[in-house]
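Take a record:
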Amino acid sequence: MKNINQLISSLNDSIFHRDESVFSALEGVKNKESEWQHPAYSEEVHWQGMPPPGTIGWHVAHLVHSSDHYAAIIRERPVQHEPETLPPGIQEITELISTLRKAHEKLIRAVSGIPDSELSGDCARGMTLAEFLRMVIRHNAWHAGQIRLLRRLWQHNEK
């Protein structure tokens, strides 16, 4: 298997795999749960176009924004100044999840067809393309874990 295909497979797994992925962490989440904010986040700055900080909705909106941003970087690489991308401007969790699926598909389209020979080329933030793609995978995993933790805190809070 080509290296780029392995990275694409890992990108897809970090979002869609049935275990330990963003979508597995989101399975069954409802609006009320997605809007709950732990007190630790109550004084964080609320960015326009994003759900309240620290909520499950915020994490999903952040992943949408990040996927769009990363796709733009990959298309325009190498970049010295990252392209400006706007937050999704969506609050409702079902719509955010659907938008995340589309944003991830856009990211995969940006990566698909890149020859392995370009993986060692400059991308952004002082990283090669391969390093950048591995960072995206870690970023998705990080937020899947954050969502799982918020769901556990929510369940404890509801008791």
Notes: The chain has a mean pLDDT of 96.
